[in-house]
Write a structure and sequence with these properties.
The structure is a single chain. The relative contact order is 0.13. Helix 3 links the parallel strand 5 and strand 6. The chain has nine helices and ten strands. The chain is globular. Pfam families: NAD_binding_10 (PF13460).
Length: about 280
């Protein structure tokens, strides 16, 4: 069994690759950043913005059974970019696809939702990962404010979120690829629901200095995201969805039927990456 990972050098892609390799499955990274591919893995050039690269994975001697799709980032027009590769893969005999989406994106909705709908229209086996907010966002978009100002800044005053780790998302994908699934998509959530005030307290205990949670408006958060370099439309979407969680949209996922519950808590992930805050 061989799996093509698009966006394979992402955090989830790398975690999934390790699991597949440990299980004896072949992995091929389709990437525009070959220097980021770990040693010991096969890779080919694949760039969503260049359809001429879509045949590269299939020009090898490996038979590809599964394709993991990480849609192009920061765009709502994901289907236009990914459809040619999906069609080409089906033509080459691929029967199983794994799509990275999100809890807030329904089939037929914007972005990955359109890809979800398209896969459903084809005679293929597919599985859609719909994770809630990543714990690892604390090490990315939130890291500067936490380190420099001791602040965790969100547009969620009191809402609870069942934060999920990338390792658990990768595990859900791995289980589908190796075992299949009785459902076409699953909400991927963590084992506990926390407020950002509680996350700030855990950060305080792990880092060893006071970290406070600062709640701001959706408009202010949108401006922050734009200052980080995100396009206006995408920044507006992120800030809006973040603000909605305060009304319990993500907290309600714990009672959903089609869910995959991970095992790593926020504290687990922070403790496992404690050195990050002193580097």
């Amino acid at each position: 069994m061989s799996t093509l990972l698009t966006g394979g050098t992402s955090q989830v892609g790398l975690a999934l690759a390790k699991r597949l390799k440990a299980a004896g499955s072949d992995v091929i990274f389709g990437t525009r950043s070959p220097s980021k591919v770990p040693s010991g893995y096969k890779h080919v050039l694949l760039d969503w913005s260049d359809p001429s690269t879509f045949g590269n994975p299939f020009n090898t001697t490996d038979r590809i059974d599964n394709v993991y799709i990480l849609p192009p980032p920061r765009t709502f027009n994901s289907l236009e970019a990914t459809k040619p590769l999906i069609d080409f893969a089906i033509e080459k005999g691929v029967k199983r696809f794994v799509l990275m989406s999100a809890t807030v994106i329904e089939k037929g909705g914007f972005g990955a939702g359109k890809i979800h709908e398209y896969l459903d229209s084809k005679s293929v086996d597919y599985f859609v990962l719909r994770p809630t907010w990543f714990i690892e966002n604390l090490f990315n978009g939130q890291a500067y404010a936490i380190r420099e100002h001791g602040e965790l800044i969100t547009a969620v005053p009191k809402g609870r979120i069942p934060f999920i780790s990338i390792e658990d998302i990768a595990q859900a994908a791995f289980e589908y690829i190796t075992q299949g699934s009785s459902t076409k998509d699953k909400l991927i959530i963590g084992p506990e629901s926390l407020t950002y005030n509680e996350v700030a307290q855990i950060l305080t205990e792990v880092i060893g200095r006071p970290i406070t949670h600062k709640a701001i408006s959706a408009e202010e958060q949108q401006a922050r995201y734009i200052s980080f370099g995100l396009p206006l439309e995408f920044a507006r979407f992120l800030a809006s969805e973040e603000f909605k969680t305060d009304s319990g949209t993500e907290a309600s996922l714990v009672t959903a039927n089609n869910k995959f519950v991970g095992k790593f808590t926020v504290r687990d992930v922070l403790e496992n990456n404690k050195a990050f805050w002193s580097s």
